[in-house]
Amino acid sequence: KHEYWVDLLSRYYTCNNWGIDGFSCRHAITSIYCKGDSVYSYIEVAFLATSFSNTYSHGITAISRNEICLDVSDKVEILPPYVKRAPDRPRDKRIESTGVMRYTAHKCRKCHKTDRH
User: Which of the chain's termini has less CB crowding within 10 Å, N or C?
Assistant: First the structure.
């Protein structure tokens, strides 16, 4: 059985989801309902529809081509970035996966051949 501590005033509880994503988890919502408060009063202001509409209420204007000032001459040569090659591992010291099985040749007691049979 798990126990969680919920502090509604500081908006903290021990499962720590409120601090991570800003939304109340089921433990906090249960505490809010038991207290008799509205769940919407504990939502962060940034997640409200009014904040969204206030943010995008102003028109977004495009930038005209005359406002963009590009000074590009024909002499500029764009080169790819320098990439240093990572060092390779030596083949004989390569770490094999756990699924690889190595077979060693054993000599048969009857026929004295070194073979797997």
Answer: N
